[in-house]
Amino acid sequence: MEAVSRELPRPYRVWVPTVRPPILNMFMCKPLRDPSSFVSQRASALGNLGRLGAPGVRHDMYVHIPVCFGKCTFCAVETKEIREVVQLVPRYVAALHRELDMYAAYPAVRNSEFGVVYIGGGTPSILSAEHLHKLVSRLVTEFSCRGATVTVEGNSTSFTQEKLAAIREAGATRVSIGVQSFDKRLSGMLETPHDPEEIGRWVEMARSTGFEHLNLDLIAGLPGDDLASLERDIEAGLSLRPTSLSVYDLMLVPHTPLARAVRGGNVGSMPDARGYVERLSLTRSKLEGLGWANVYGNTYSAVRDGVELPAGPPSGNGACLAVGSSSYGMLADHHYVNNGSMIKYMEAVERGEFPVFGGRIAATPWQKAEHALIDLCFHLAMDREAFRGKVGVDVVDLAGRRLARLERKGLLEIDERQVRLTDLGKVWSGRVCGTLLGPGHLLRLLSMKVMSELFGRMPERVRQRMKERAGRG
Q1: Dihedral sign, Cα of residue 376, residue 377, residue 379, residue 380
Q2: Measuring CA to CA, which residue among 156, 150, 147, 155 is closest to residue 170?
Q3: What is the pLDDT of residues 115-155, one digit of tens each?
Q4: Strand bridging mode 113-121 / 244-249
Q5: Angle at 333 between CA 332 and CA 335, to 5 degrees
Q6: How far apart are CA 114 and CA 134, in angstroms?
Q7: Residues 168/209, Cβ–Cβ less than 8 Å
Q8: Strand ranges (E), 244-369
Q9: What is the DSSP string of 385-420?
Q10: 461 burial class (0-12, 13-18, 19+ CB within 10 angstroms)?
C-alpha cells in the first residue's frame, strides 16, 4: 500500500489520529472567566445579521444527550449512566427546549436554513418515545430544515420499534447505531450494551419502520485486533446493507478503563501509527473497491444510480448551532462550548442564561481560517471561493507555503477551484491538519496528550474534583 510504504517525518512519529473537528475546535475554546461578556458580544453580532451566512448556505445543528445505559470502556465523552440521573432526564430535556427558545429568539437563527441535524450523545435513544418525538418535531418544524438529513443516534438495545416510529413520524430521516465490533470477544472487552447478534434484527426493524438511511459505526485499532478481524467486521456490516458505514480509528484516552487495561497488560496491545495506517488503508480499499464513496472523515456512503446516499456529514460551509451540555458550536465567528456538567448546564438555562463555559472569537483572517482548515481535513476538499467568502482572503495567499509543502508530499491537490486531499492525504488527515495549523497546533496536541496522561493516572476522586472545578463534573 502506497500509504504504508511512506516514511513518517520525525515530528509525526508521535501518532496524530485522523481529524475530529469538534474535539480540535473545543480544545481551542478556552474557559471563560466572564461568560456573560462573551455571550453579550455574540448576541450583538447575531443581532446585526439577517441570517447566519450567505444566501443559499445551509448550516448544521447538533443536540447532545449526555446519558447512557452504561459507559463503554473506551468512551471519554461527558456522559452519565442512566441509573445515576434517571430523575434528571425530564429536567434535562426541558432545559434543551429552553435553550432552543433562546436561540430561536434571534432572527438570524430563525431565518437560516439547516442542512444537517444530528442528535447525538451519549445515547439519545435512551429517551422516551414522547421526548424523542417532541424534540425531533420541534427541530424540524420550528427551524428551517426543509430537505435536511435528520439523524438520531442510539443503540439496538434502547432503540425500540415504538421509538423508531416516533422519530420517523416527527421527521427524522436517518438513524445511526454504534456497533463498534461484531466480534464478541472485542465487544465484550468494550462492554457495549448490546449483543452483536442483535444488530441484524434491529436493522430489519428500522427498515420496517420506514428508515431507508441507516448508519453503522465500527472501530479500527482495538487492543488485540488485526487486519483480518477488521475485514470481518466490515463484511458483517456490509451484509446488513446500511447506506453508510463509519470506521473510526480508536482514540485511547488515558483515564478510560480500556486505557488502564492496556497499561496493565490485561488486554492485547495497541497498534502503532503504521498499524493504524494499514487499517485505514484496508477500509478505504475495501469500501471504495465496492463502489462506496468516502464522503467525509472516516465515513463511507453507498452510491445508488451514481448518487451518494445521505450520510449526515456536517456541511463545513456554515455555522453550527449546538445545544446541550458539553456541545460545541460556532455562530457569527463566535466558537463556544457549553458547560459539561448536566447540573450546571440546567441551572444556567433555568436562570435564562446561555450555558456557555468556554469560547473564542475568530477576529483575524487566520483565526477564521483555522476552523476551515480543520474542516478541509474532515470533509476532504475545500471550495476556494467559499473560503474567500468566509475568511476574506484566498487560502493559497494565506497558507501557500504550507499547502505547497503538502502538495509536494503528495497529500494535497490544488487547482483554481478546490484544495482537496489525495488518497494518501485522506489516510494521513491528522498529519495534514497539523501541518496546516502549524507548530503551535502540534504543541497543543502534544500538551493535551501529556495532560490527559497525567489526568488518567490520578485517583478517581481527584479527577472528579478537578472536573467539578472546571465546570465539567
Answers
A1: positive
A2: 150
A3: 999 999 889 999 999 999 999 999 999 998 888 999 999 99
A4: unpaired
A5: 110
A6: 18
A7: yes
A8: 244-249, 293-296, 299-301, 303-304, 307-308, 320-323, 328-331, 334-338, 356-361
A9: HHHHHHHSS-HHHHHHHHHHHHHHTTSEEE-SSEEE
A10: exposed
CA distance 184 to 306: 36
Q: pTM of the prediction?
A: 0.88
- Residue labelled with grid coordinates 435536511: 148
The model's pLDDT over 385-395, given as tens digits with 9 standing for 90+, comes to: 989 988 889 99
Q: Is the bond preceding residue 122 a cis peptide, omega within 30 degrees? A: yes
- Report the pLDDT averaged over residues 368-387: 85
Residue 332 has phi, psi (to 5 degrees) of 50, 50
Q: What is the rounded CA–CA span in Å between residue 310 and residue 332?
A: 27
More confident residue, 448 or 58: 58
Confidence of residue 178 (pLDDT cuts 50, 70, 90): very high
Assess whether pLDDT exceeds 90 at residue 277. no
Residue range(s) occupied by CATH 1.10.10.920 in the chain: 1-21+364-473
Domain with CATH 3.20.20.70 in the chain: 22-308
**Alpha-carbon distance 213 to 244, whole Å?**
8
Question: CA angle 297-443-3, nearest 5°?
Answer: 40
Integer CA distances (angstroms), 394 to 89, 309, 400, in order: 47, 31, 9
**pLDDT per residue as tens digits for the range 57-106:** 888 999 999 999 888 998 877 788 898 999 999 999 999 999 999 999 99
Query: Of 2.30.42.10, 3.90.850.10, 3.20.20.70, 3.40.50.720, which CATH number belongs to 22-308?
Result: 3.20.20.70
In angstroms and rounded to an integer, the radius of gyration of the C-alpha atoms of the chain is: 21
**Domain 1-21+364-473: which CATH number of 3.40.630.30, 3.40.50.620, 1.10.10.10, 1.10.10.920:** 1.10.10.920
Instruction: Tell me the C-alpha distance between 273 and 295, whole Å.
Output: 23
